[in-house]
Amino acid sequence: MQSAEILLTTQLTTWFELDFGEAVTVLPSSMTFVDADNDGISEFVAGSVQGDLFIFKSHSARYWKKASDLGMITTVGAGDIMQKKKNVVYVVTGEGSIYTFMLAPGHISLEEDGTKARDSRAIKPYSHQKIPPNIVMSVLADIDGDGYPEILFGMTDRVVRSFKWVENTNTKEDVKGWFVTLNKWEFAGQIGNLSSSLSDGVAEIFVSQPGGSCCRLKACVSLNTNSILETNFEPPVYHNPTASRSRNPLMQTQVLAGVSFKETSGRAVRSRQNSSDKSKNIYAVCSFDGSLSVCNEDTVLWEHQTSEHLIGVYPFPLRDEFILVAGSGAVYIVNDEKKMLKLLTTESINGFTAGLFGTVSQQGDHVNSCAFATICSGGRIFIYHSMNIPNLSMMKSVWRRPKKQPLPVPNTSI
């Protein structure tokens, strides 16, 4: 089976270190790029185990907003989870609390009496609710087909739960609603990460399992006799495409759903909503032993072996490529033609995320561009931005193995 080809290795040079104002510890699942204040420009959001939520705007190393005394933050995210046509930031703690924050462009924090807060950087939660503890990761997916995302949480006890915001207009409380549990699944092994995609317009959730395997959860949305949407899930399907290999069954594994793959005929196959061939649900699996496999169910479409410890696989914003991350500090961009670009960061990586981040263009306009965030030694976080990453499909190898030349025929006419 043909392996991937590394076309170019280059160093990332445009970066800055975030200034939290204090020593903090941020978990890999507690940081994300998202438009937190709904102004069309994305921010970087990070939560610490010390209980603080930080929001960084544009390319400022100093945080823009901060919330304190929340508890040990284990995962953060944002989306239209309250069906208000705008992003709402959610923060989950290991003790079993979920906080939500609603921000607006030019957000100004107010005291309870309506006066401007002394610390204009401080923000307060919109809602707070107790949920089961030991949550360590989350992903958004519209699993009930109503057009709004639900939150799926991965827990340390090998359980995944889904939550949905439900409005309650009959209450006298300021917050008109709460999160309710929709589903619960239990898995055989510890959960490495969660990833979501669409198949035939229906949400699919991939749950990584140790040893290079994963489990797929697929929703089934239908109308009942009263023309009301009903959501059920197919039985969980375990995929272990690399079972024939001799490997550690407890090895750390990460999965990414909805990747692209180009067949030998040159026809691109994508497991995305806009795909013309939605029957192929293609996903990528990487393991700590350095192996990458792009699979369709239990079939390995292509694979690649690196000499590094791989710690994560992520979607590339706005492009069909995906990102492969090694603990050594190497970041690989991979496309559907088995071509790879190797980017080198400044230090080894303990945590990573990719997304869109607000930047200032040469014309002075604020625009979104691709950015990486890395957690390095000592808990420091670096933002890599303004990356001019070329289109891999248009690139050719910088290095080629020289062709063997025939040995010269010795001159025997002397």
UniProtKB/TrEMBL annotation:
Keywords: Integrin
UniProt keyword Transmembrane, yes or no: no
GO BP terms in the entry: integrin-mediated signaling pathway; regulation of TOR signaling
InterPro entries per record: Integrin_alpha_N, KICSTOR_ITFG2
Signal peptide: none
PANTHER family, per database record: INTEGRIN ALPHA REPEAT DOMAIN-CONTAINING, KICSTOR COMPLEX PROTEIN ITFG2
Protein name, per record: Integrin-alpha FG-GAP repeat-containing protein 2
Species this protein is from: Hypsibius exemplaris (Freshwater tardigrade)
